[in-house]
Amino acid sequence: MEKPLDLTLVIDIGKSNAKLLLIDAQGAVVERHSRANASVTSPLGYPALDVQGLQDWMQATLRASANARRCGHVIASTHGAALVALDEKALAWAPLDYEFEALALEGAAHTAFAAANNFCKTLSPELPAGLNAARQLHWLQVTHPEAWRSTRTLMPYAQYWAWLLCGVASSEVSSLGCHTHLWNPQAGSYSSLAVARGWAALFAPLRRAWEVLGPVGAARAAAWGLPADCQVHVGVHDSNACLARYIAGHQGTATPTTHAAAGQAPAAEALTLVSSGTWTVLMAPGAPSQALRAENDMLGNVDVTGRMTPTARFMGGREFAALLDGASPGAATPQSAQAILDTATLAVPAFSQHGGPFAPRAGYVVRDGKHLQGPLSQHLDDAQRAALAALYCAQITAWLTGQLWNAPDTITAQGRVIVEGPLASNPVYMQLLQALLPQTTCYASSDAVEGTARGAWMLAHWGAGTPGVELQRIASTAFPGLREYHQRWRAEVSAQTPHR
């Protein structure tokens, strides 16, 4: 007797980790696998995404799975700033790692390239290394012209995995509109830069993230351990998969459900969604585009329906880890956070130079006005370092929320703030964020499945009335001196040399 095709396979590829989740029709995870994700050296000598390593791992894992043969749907959610090129039948060149520093143009080349991008049209700021995916195309075209000449088709990273699974090439707006310089969000078309350079003509046809491209088919089924008639969906940019759970137009998710104590959150209320991971991405549907400032690494992303979404972000996962200096995030307590406030221990950005409003600056920690030299573990215990990391990320989250909604003092920011990902399970971060944004109502996603993977699962069943989002409302917690501390932190940040 054949097994029912009652599971959905979600391929969730982040910059640091990759996951495979097999999810049933009720949204429960039946099987989960993960592995670290890192770049490899390409045949041309540059750092590249490890697509072959990931493919080998996925295929071996799924072939060994007792449940993979029950998958009726498969969809990929991947990090942004990643493009894949095909020749007539395979990779034309290995997809570049966006952290490759040589992608950062200098001098006249930088000036010319920046001038070709109209921020008012693309809402895509100039970012470090290859975070503007157009820089990757430019670099490859100039540095490796022979490899470039073999390019027949371009596609975003999520759609590459869909192509591998079913053989149908496609492109999708949430990845194209992710600070690439390649998309004009307000016009809903390729940018003038993409057209002028001939790149637009190379991209595979546009399809919606939730659309079905076709079945896996018999030829691929054995290699992947999946049924031949498993339906392959187009796929999505990871942060936008998270947002898809909340945007209007998807039955069952337009108004999130919450725990009984929290009540029902009004659908019309202003929403800021915080998707955390390697990157902490803030998305504010309906926020004014006029508030976007390129110098603060603010941009206009594009949601899965094609609508522009004001967005800000910082490399929160990396910065959090830097401040932990080996401590566990769970070591933080309200008491250790209060000790950080009482001793005026400030973490001044930035602790990652790969994007965010303060990226080019070198971060440092001061206590009572004195710089702490050497490893933080020499000055602060585990609980204090974990609290400092939570406080630092909460302050930047609150500051960016205010910037998105034109409420720069943050005290006046209103509406809902919903946190997904690792930060949602950090109670001290959530308590501090609520205290920093007293006029908002903060919620933590209580879903055991990451927002990116859950959103991708919902997209594979778009319009089918999947379960609503379970949220935990954050109670107000008093942190004496927090407002004065935050003002002092902002003054310290403002005193630094303008970063752009």
Automatic annotation (TrEMBL):
Organism of provenance: Rhodoferax lacus
Keyword annotations from UniProtKB, A to Z: Kinase, Transferase
Cross-referenced InterPro entries: ATPase_NBD, FGGY_C_2, FGGY_Carb_Kinase
Name used for this protein in its record: L-fuculose kinase
Superkingdom, natural source: Bacteria
Short name of any one Pfam family annotated for the protein: FGGY_C_2
Upper taxonomic lineage: Bacteria, Pseudomonadati, Pseudomonadota, Betaproteobacteria, Burkholderiales
Gene3D superfamilies: 3.30.420.40
UniProt GO molecular function: kinase activity
PANTHER family: SUGAR KINASE (PTHR43095)
Ranges where the Carbohydrate kinase FGGY C-terminal domain occurs: 270-463
UniProt similarity note: Belongs to the FGGY kinase family.
